Amino acid sequence: MKKIFLFAATAALLTACSSEELTGVETAQQKAGEAPINFSVYTPRSITRAGVAGTTDNSNIGERGIGIMAYYSNDEVYNKETSKPNYMYNTKLSNAGAGWVYNPVMYWPNEFGDKAISDNTDYVSFFAYAPYIDVENTTGIPELKEFTSDADYDAVAANLKYKYAVPSYEDPTTITDLAGYTALRTTQGWTYTDATDWAGEVKAEAEAFFGTTFADEAALVAYINALPADDAHLINGATDKQVTTLETYKEYTGLGDDAAKAALEDISKKLIQGKNITEINSNTASGDPIVKYVVDTDPATSVDLLWGVAANEADYKPIVDNTKVQNNAGLPFVNLIKPKDPVNGKMNLRMLHALSRLNVNIKYISDKVTNPDGGSEVINADETRIYVRSIKIGGFIMKAALNLNNTEEKTITIGSDDIDFGIPNWKAFDGKTALTSSEVVKFLDGRKDGKEGMESGADKNEEPTGLNPLILENYSKDIWGGLLWKLEKNPGVTNEAANLFGNGYSAADDPIFVIPTGDPIDIEIVYDVMTKDDNLSTFLSDGLTHGNIITNTISKTSKEIFGADTNMEPGNAYTIKIILGMTSVKFDASVEPWNAIPAVPVDLPDNQ
Description:
The chain has 608 residues and is of the alpha+beta class. It has three domains: 15-141 and 287-353, no CATH class; 165-240, no CATH class; 356-395 and 440-516 and 518-583, no CATH class. It is 13% helix and 29% strand. The chain contains ten helices and 24 strands. Strand 17 and strand 18 (417-427) form a beta hairpin. Helix 3 (150-157) packs across helix 7 and helix 7 (246-253) packs across helix 8 (257-272). It is elongated and about 140 Å long. The model is unreliable at 1-6, 13-33, 45-52, 319-326, 456-460 and 475-488 (pLDDT under 50).
């Protein structure tokens, strides 16, 4: 069996600048001549949908909030080693539609200027990240959510992006003969053959499908007619829904109340601790503010991470010109003094994506490998299954720390506009040492068979690392035994695109967010093609079913995938479509006619 491996990939730049400006509201203190600190926010417009998990953009950043860190350094300029967040610590900046607000309101120091008593200059430096998270101030660790009512579970469910279809049912269909059963099984999408002979395949097929025996055709007809109105075998249509509450989550997953609540608590914990934003610097920490991040491979809970820089449109002006004031677009607001116009002197934040957005989906195409959209043959799942063993992807790492004080910026042309963007200042997870690039992340299927053990450990210590379980074999022999080919078994890779990541619920095109290293997006995939064959002496992975396993390893460089050398960069969206081309082994045979030899007379001596 020949395997042809194809990649289709696209990359989109998430940098289209929003035309929306969310501004602060003039307060009574401003009218009275005092000088509160004001913000406005610009967020690059994204091409994906909004949500708590998922991309943060202008449609949701006001609700999700921005965390502000401010450092007052008196008459000294900001020191990236010794300064502390002693002016504002993780202050939530939010916008419900009337303008950007925060609490408590802070005011500019007044020591500099003609009317100041002191000759000192007061400097304040500001840094920002999003989405905002609640933390324990002395540790910077996110606080776990307390669940006291169903409303708390509803709030977690509302974070999810799961979409699903709810079947609608019709009254039981009445049939009178085998022809009626044949028509019904077509409309219901039941698995069946084209046979119509009761004594042949139909009886065995119906008994296997319904899990009972039928003495004759009439018994099957009676069984069908007795099915209840809400039986799943009598689907009339479907209504598209999305998980937004505990009840819809239960409907989607099929879990009971206690199990669904436990699952949502685990999801909440992952959103708050252990994945995504896992820590920020404490309120006593010295030096640049950092945000620690761990990649979450579940698209439903993967969180975008942004940081703030001065926008091109920033109109902040110090009270007098000062060479120590930094207000370069694409860099943070460092060493600011009281603005000359306190009412209009807002700090215009541009919130930038520090991560890359990655979607990888996978499917097979059988016997039509030259046209990725033309393969229509379906592999018989009762005979052959395809399972992913592992995949390596270059260009990103799984955890790192974002230093909010970036020192580099770049100009990107969007249409006719030149936009100044910051370059995220990623560090190693300790927040201090340089980020290690040239790494390749390897995702494993979790089978402890000794074939793909972790490099640093024993050959059978393999652990699953975020791949979609439906495309993996990864079964327990104690549970499955010889049931490898039951329909309940994971389907593996099919002819319909499936998300490479997640827990099996995510749509094929749902992305995750990863930490880019600027390295090439090279890929290597290892997958098994398992074929059941009772005539073979070898066994499949269950040790009971006879068959054949072929392990395939295919690698592609970023140039082969994207058509040009492509490195993973922040703010870019990448879509990679993995297509496994399956070509069946075919035979043609004929029997050659006999080559007739003309008869030859043979003279024998006479018998004496």
